[in-house]
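Render this sequence as a predicted structure.
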Amino acid sequence: MTQEIVSQEEWLKARREFMVKEKEFTRRREELSAERRQLPKVKIDKDYRFQGPNGELSLTDLFEDKSQLVVYHFMLGPGWEEGCPSCSFWADNYNGTEIHLAHRDIKLAAVSRGPLENILAYKDRMGWDFDWYSSADTDFNFDFAVSFTEEQQQSGDLNYNFGTMPFPMEEGPGFSVFEKGEDGTIYHTYSTYARGLDIFNSAYHIMDMTPKGRDEAELPFTMAWVRRHDQYDD
């Protein structure tokens, strides 16, 4: 779409009119965030176990000294030598946020079903410093609907994003949020998948401010341009 060329005064008038819509969007987003915080929660009864650099950990251990835990379900499955390029694009947004989240009683961690040695090797290659654990040999990824059996993949059943769409791969992306009560009880409070992950990618939101936007309409598929950050040609 070609933008109209106007005077500074006309531009300012159009910008102010559009700002009214932006303010309404911001207010509605704040309302939705408040509603999200009022959603019911589910008690976690399973004793999930994870592998980290210093050995085995429970779900409680992942909280460290915080009462809130945000888990990014990173697509790096059994036998994978590299993480998913799209998940890697998202993960590039996480470095440096941990200190800020920690000061609001939040712990951020990534979890994948692949073996720990592959996770740590890829994390080192990418230069990330957020915590990343393996859930290999547990039901964690399956229970939170980000890993799928071969039968599920082939059936075409609606098994992803709360049963709204099929997922043809063994691993999918997502975010899950947990809360730890004063008595140590852990609750699952929220999960989001698919386009719900969009808000976590600041690079995309910067693109949305530009004249070309994300510029993906003519590509074979969304994010066909994305590479791991060490694999771009320039």
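Summary. The helical segments are 8-37, 59-62, 85-91, 98-102, 116-126, 140-143, 150-155, 202-207. The chain has a mean pLDDT of 95.
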